[in-house]
Amino acid sequence: MWKTVLRRIMIMIPEVIILSLLVFLLAKAMPGDPFTGSINPKSDPAQLHHLMEMNGLYDPWYQQYWNWVVHLFHGNLGNSYQYQEPVTRLIGSRAVNTIWLALLTTVLTYCFALPMGMFAAKHEGKLPDNIVRIYTYVTYSIPFFVVLVIGIWIFGYVLGWFPTTGSVSATANPGLPTAGSHLYHILLPSILGALFGTVNVVQYLRSEVIDAKRSDYVRTARSKGVPEKDIYKHHIFRNSLLPIAAFAGYSITGLLNGSIFTETVFSYPGMGLLFINSINYRDYTVITALVLIYGILNLLGTLLSDIILSIVDPRIRIE
C-alpha cells in the first residue's frame, strides 16, 4: 500500500509543475498591476515604474517564473504587495482559521447526513423519507451564497444568536476564552456549510441503504433470525458507507478549497477571503501561492479518498 502511495506522490510532481506554470502565466495575464492605485491615486508614474522594475515585473515571464521556482524551493513564496509581509507567514496565519472551519464543517456534515440518510432509507416511501427528500431537493436547488445570506439574516440579525463577522471577539482574553470565542464565531458558518453539504451524502447513503436492504446477504441474515437493529448496524450501514468513503477525501480538501463563499460572506479571515482580496489588489505572489496550494489539495484529495476507501472496505487494498 505504501509503495503505491509513494508512486502516486511521484506522479503528482509533474502535475504540480504543470499546474504551477499555468497558474503563474494566468496570474501574469491579469490586467493591471499591484501598485497602481494602491499607494496613491495621484502617484507619480515614475515612482510606479521604479516599483515595477524593482520587483522584476518588467522581466520576461520565463525569468520571473524561474526566480519564483527557485525561491519556492527555498521555502520563500515572495512578499505580498498588499500586506507587505512574507506570503508564507500571511497564508500560514490564515490557513489555521480555514482548517478549523473546514474541520468543524466536515464533522457536522457527517453528523447530520448519516442519521438523515439512514432514517430516510429505513422509512422508504413514508412521511419521514419524503421530508428528507424534500429537504435535499430544496437545499440542492438553492445557491450556497443564498443559504449563507439567509442564515446570517435569521440567526445573526433577527435572532442575534451568532456573530456575523470576524473569527474572534476583540474583547476575548488570551487562552481558553479566545478558543471559545473562535468556536462561537465559526459555529454558524460551519452549521450552514454542513446543512448545504449534507445533500450528496444523504442521497448517496439513502440509495445505498435501499439497495442493501434488498440484497441476498440481508435476506439471509433475516432468515437466520438476526435482529433488525444488528442487520442495519453490521450489514447494511457498513456496506452502504463505501461510496461515501470514496468521496471523503474530496469533501475534506474541497472544504479547504471551497471556503471562499463562506469566508467572503462572513468576512472570516481565512484563505478564501485572502484569495478574493489578492485578486482585487492584483497581489500576484499571493494568488499564485494560493492557487498552487488549492491544486495540490485536490491532488491529495484523490489519494486520501483511495486510502480511506481501502480502510473502510477490507476487500479493497491499494496494490
If you had to describe this structure to a student in words, what would you say it looks like?
With 319 residues, the protein is an all-alpha fold. The protein has one domain: MetI-like fold. The protein is 74% helix and 0% strand. The protein is built from 14 helices and no strands. The protein has helices at residues 2-28, 45-54, 61-73, 87-122, 127-141, 144-158, 176-213, 216-223, 228-240, 242-246, 248-257, 260-265, 271-280, 284-312. Helix 4 runs antiparallel to helix 5 and helix 8 runs antiparallel to helix 9 (228-240). The radius of gyration is 24 Å and the shape is globular. The termini are close together.
In short:
The chain is an all-alpha fold and 319 residues long. Helices cover 74% and strands 0% of the residues.
Low-confidence parts lasting 5 or more residues at pLDDT below 50? none
Structural classification: mainly alpha
Percentage of β-strand residues: under 5%
> What is the approximate shape?
globular
CATH architecture: Orthogonal Bundle
The H-level CATH homologous superfamily, spelled out, is MetI-like
> What would the CATH topology be?
MetI-like fold
The percent range for helix content is: over 70%
